[in-house]
């Protein structure tokens, strides 16, 4: 049994065959997906993943889509958190990799969402691309109920700081590339209780899906990703699966009732 702790199953790339995507995942033992929203406009589609497929969902405003977010969207997110009670607030955070994104607006929006997470006593799923230290700064300020640092690619020191704040670290497709030496070293050496597994479908395709033409990532790839982690740590796949499922439950306590 495995849990995909970060999967954009609501993305348009899955509109043509979403039922089949879920069927393939279940057939290989991926029993649950956590689907985070990215904009207010996507909330209904994200929530539909819970209603139709039983997925766990998070609601939040993604930093990459900063131009789509408005000040009033924080008020709408607050109302949605009360009405729909998602598993977490996410995907939220900071992205200082994509050029042209307004850093000041990102930070204001991130801080506003952390306040909402604290007010609603929910964990968060954070996007931390080229922004680990800045994200840590705001997490120390607001002291939310832990969560997951998605697609972790920081230093060991930064990893330890996230762990001190009660976060788990998401590892997925990037770990499968032999050239990703820092990520692979972290995956091998971090305490096992620090790690959760994710696909970030349809993005961050694992090494075996690189083209030409490139393949679409999906939750059914998670067992092979877990196998890479098992190989790096000298463990069995069953051991990795049991540990990462327990870790995901610890990071996102609302999952326990869904996947027990």
UniProtKB/TrEMBL annotation:
<comment type="similarity">
    <text>Belongs to the metallo-dependent hydrolases superfamily. TatD-type hydrolase family.</text>
</comment>
<keyword id="KW-0479">Metal-binding</keyword>
<feature type="binding site">
    <location>
        <position position="91"/>
    </location>
    <ligand>
        <name>a divalent metal cation 1</name>
    </ligand>
</feature>
<feature type="binding site">
    <location>
        <position position="127"/>
    </location>
    <ligand>
        <name>a divalent metal cation 2</name>
    </ligand>
</feature>
<dbReference type="InterPro" id="IPR032466">
    <property type="entry name" value="Metal_Hydrolase"/>
</dbReference>
<feature type="binding site">
    <location>
        <position position="6"/>
    </location>
    <ligand>
        <name>a divalent metal cation 1</name>
    </ligand>
</feature>
<feature type="binding site">
    <location>
        <position position="8"/>
    </location>
    <ligand>
        <name>a divalent metal cation 1</name>
    </ligand>
</feature>
<dbReference type="InterPro" id="IPR001130">
    <property type="entry name" value="TatD-like"/>
</dbReference>
<feature type="binding site">
    <location>
        <position position="200"/>
    </location>
    <ligand>
        <name>a divalent metal cation 1</name>
    </ligand>
</feature>
<dbReference type="GO" id="GO:0016788">
    <property type="term" value="F:hydrolase activity, acting on ester bonds"/>
</dbReference>
<dbReference type="Pfam" id="PF01026">
    <property type="entry name" value="TatD_DNase"/>
</dbReference>
<protein>
    <submittedName>
        <fullName>TatD family deoxyribonuclease</fullName>
    </submittedName>
</protein>
<keyword id="KW-0378">Hydrolase</keyword>
<feature type="binding site">
    <location>
        <position position="150"/>
    </location>
    <ligand>
        <name>a divalent metal cation 2</name>
    </ligand>
</feature>
<dbReference type="InterPro" id="IPR018228">
    <property type="entry name" value="DNase_TatD-rel_CS"/>
</dbReference>
<dbReference type="GO" id="GO:0046872">
    <property type="term" value="F:metal ion binding"/>
</dbReference>
């Amino acid at each position: 049994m495995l849990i995909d702790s970060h999967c954009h199953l609501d993305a348009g790339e899955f509109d043509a065959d979403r039922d089949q995507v879920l069927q393939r995942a279940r057939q290989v033992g991926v029993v649950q997906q956590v689907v985070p929203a990215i904009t207010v406009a996507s909330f209904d589609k994200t929530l539909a993943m819970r209603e139709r497929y039983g997925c766990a969902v998070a609601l939040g405003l993604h930093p990459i889509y900063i131009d789509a977010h408005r000040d009033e969207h924080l008020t709408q997110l607050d109302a949605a958190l009360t009405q729909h009670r998602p598993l977490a607030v996410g995907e939220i955070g900071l992205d200082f990799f994509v050029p042209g994104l307004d850093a000041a607006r990102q930070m204001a929006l991130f801080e506003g969402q952390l306040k909402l997470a604290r007010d609603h006593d929910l964990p968060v799923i954070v996007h931390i691309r080229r922004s680990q230290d800045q994200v840590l700064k705001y997490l120390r300020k607001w002291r939310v109920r832990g969560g997951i640092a998605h697609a972790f690619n920081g230093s060991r020191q930064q990893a330890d700081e996230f762990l001190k704040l009660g976060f788990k670290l998401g590892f997925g497709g990037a770990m499968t590339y032999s050239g990703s030496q820092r990520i692979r070293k972290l995956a091998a050496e971090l305490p096992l209780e620090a790690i959760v597994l994710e696909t970030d479908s349809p993005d961050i395709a694992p090494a075996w899906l690189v083209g030409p033409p490139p393949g679409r990532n999906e939750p059914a790839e998670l067992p092979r990703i877990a196998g890479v982690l098992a190989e790096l740590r000298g463990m069995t796949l069953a051991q990795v699966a049991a540990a990462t499922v327990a870790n995901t439950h610890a990071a996102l306590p609302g999952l326990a009732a869904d996947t027990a």
